[in-house]
Amino acid sequence: MQGADPAASEGHLARMGDVIVRQRITELFALDRPLTVVRGPSGSGKTVAVLQWAHQLADDGITVRLFDGQCSTVDDLQVALDRLKGDDAAARVVIVLDHVESWDDWPEAEIVRALRHHPELTMVVCSRKHLPWFTAAELELDVARIGMAELRLTVDEVTAIADRAGLDLSRGAAAAIHTSIAGMPALARIGLVTGSAGGTPTWWSEGRVRRFVARHLMSEVVDPAERVDLRRAAFIEHLSADSLGAADPGGSPHRMLASLESIGVIDQWVDGREPIYWMSALIRETLKHDLDRVDVGDLDVLHDAVMATLRELGLPHRALAQAVAGERWSSVEAILDASGWTLLTSHESSLRAALRELPEHMRSGSAIARALDDAIAHRPPRDRDEHTGAWTHPPSDVEARLHLETIGVVAGRRAGMAREIFASSSSAVELAAQALDASGPEHLAAAQLELELGITAYAAGDVVAAERRLRRVLRSSAGAHAVGVRHEAASILALVSTVVGDLGAADRWREESHELRTSTAAFRFPTVTMDLVDTLMSLESAALPVRQAGRDDYSEAPEVIRTWATYAETRQALAWGGRLQALHRLRASRLVDPARLPETAGLLNVFEADLLLSLGRGTEASRLLETVPTGNLFGAVSRARLAHLTGQHDRTIDILASLTGGVHPFERLRVEAQLLAALSYERIGEAEVSGALLRRAVDVSASLGLVSPFSTVPEEFLRSHEDRVPSLREMLGDLRALGIRHPYPDSIGLVRLTPREREVLVALAHGSSVDEIASRLFVSRNTVKTQARGLYRKLEVSSRSEAVAAGHVLGLLHD
């Protein structure tokens, strides 16, 4: 060391030969600045950077004096400063102070005076924390600051550290290491692991770094009283002065900031800005899990306090992240409900991250969570800038309200509350009606809300209201931006008309949908709904090609569409074959919760029951139909068919009475009910009533273009009436042209077991002996034998194996 003062105890200016030189750091030091403060925690590389710069100066002949607090004292510094007094012509001198945080009685006045009056003097101080005299020096001197923002490694520097040690890292591996350690230089080196002592590193270990952080930094650097602050901070998702204060309202903000700064989590040494917080995942996990003996109190209270503060500050995306991290699911739902639209429009990335973390019960149980997730998944690309992902046109307050109402309607419908949502939608209806007269984005948002109200009305069973809403969309929506909504409304109207049986109207809506789809080349419209319409219409007209329906084709469609895709597949299987395959696919894909979506579950049960009736499995069909809501018109027709096939013709007529002549929009079901009632009246000898119903069915079908309902009764019955109802001959010809067959047997058996008989049957199927069954049911052997004989009589069998086989065939052993 040049120019060393023998009276002062100085440190040795050691070479840092095994450490990479970060030239970008050394270039930050300047001789023309009187004072440079390098502030960072242990392991930040501050000493290495200063010593590398100092060696460059020493190699150029400049005197460098190092005072290391581990071997020097503040008196040694005082001696060096005294030597400068009165020596104006002294040569350039650089004083480096390191590890001096424990020094007391700083001669701050002498330091400032020496630096101000001796331009040849430059001082560099390395410190883990703020020293009292820094403030006074900044008031009178040009002080340079170097903090963690500059000291943190780059990805290239991580690669260079590993390369110097002999480990070749890929760019991806280096980036992963850089992220996990938040750029701390010492942690990059510590993580290098050798296969044997003294050998070349063969990998980089996070576990090794975690152990170092827990054992060294936590035990040697941070005081025990401050470890609570560090561990509490680890549970805060987004560190800030506000969130830290909320996490420890009775604590000391200054102490907490100092604690975080001591291990590099926070950088307060930032000119004119808020402190920078760096909490890498590795540090966070270390603080959470490797300091379990540090008690931070009730974590639920901590999460709730931070979350409440963030919500008060108008930061719902931060509050949402905190609620998810703390698994405070009721709070998550409250935030989504209150700020769903704000999150969707302004903080979509945060919303995406939160939705990915939701547990299964939130995904299936939270209507608003599902709606927001769906809104993100189906975000129209034209609403977003392709480079930044930001909204191209931020919504107005009215547009935001319209979108939020739309989310609420969709969420309620998907939660199985279509009837409730539609019944209580007066505010949404009024808002949509007012905004439909507007133009631009507000008009488009209103049209979208009106569309969802129409779909919800259809899901609630109010076909008339659904058609009215959907027609409003088509009448009021104009302009290129509304074409997509109009196309969807026309497609849904075509589907509604097809399901209810008005094929003339369905064809008109189908044509309008096609015109809208081809009118604007810039838009690519989904055709899934129209594909389904074509599938259903191919059952009525030989002019249309047969389309095979499969639910896989509709996996991305709205839930209403998926339900009717199952309906289409069922009708095709009944008409043209493939009933067993359709039955197996329906059962395999049954994911609907009956408690949450009773109407949808009821419809799917009806479709399955129809397939079972066509296969002669009446007992299974009967059990399914018992779960269908009584107001379900499709279920009523299936119940009537079951009664007819089991010889209960009077009951069939009673069930169909309201369907054949009542007020409802389902004309196809009306025709099917009239045909089945006509068949039942003939079976009980009421020929005139039967003929009248048959003529009404033919007249309605001819006006609507329906053919397929006539396949639901035997062809022999229809041929027997050709002379009295001439149009039947033409109808039968159309059925033959379409290749549609009558799918149901002439009759089926229906077995009804008592609960005890079913228990005995299940036990027999499990191979239990009579003694085992008696013990399980707490009855005598003779009672079991008596119950088994009664079971055999009902099943018309004579042995255990035949009883079990019959139980499987009849569905008595199915859950």
Automatic annotation (TrEMBL):
<dbReference type="InterPro" id="IPR000792">
    <property type="entry name" value="Tscrpt_reg_LuxR_C"/>
</dbReference>
<dbReference type="GO" id="GO:0006355">
    <property type="term" value="P:regulation of DNA-templated transcription"/>
</dbReference>
<feature type="domain" description="HTH luxR-type">
    <location>
        <begin position="746"/>
        <end position="811"/>
    </location>
</feature>
<keyword id="KW-0804">Transcription</keyword>
<dbReference type="InterPro" id="IPR016032">
    <property type="entry name" value="Sig_transdc_resp-reg_C-effctor"/>
</dbReference>
<dbReference type="InterPro" id="IPR036388">
    <property type="entry name" value="WH-like_DNA-bd_sf"/>
</dbReference>
<keyword id="KW-0805">Transcription regulation</keyword>
<protein>
    <recommendedName>
        <fullName>HTH luxR-type domain-containing protein</fullName>
    </recommendedName>
</protein>
<keyword id="KW-0238">DNA-binding</keyword>
<dbReference type="Pfam" id="PF00196">
    <property type="entry name" value="GerE"/>
</dbReference>
<dbReference type="GO" id="GO:0003677">
    <property type="term" value="F:DNA binding"/>
</dbReference>
<dbReference type="InterPro" id="IPR027417">
    <property type="entry name" value="P-loop_NTPase"/>
</dbReference>
<dbReference type="InterPro" id="IPR003593">
    <property type="entry name" value="AAA+_ATPase"/>
</dbReference>
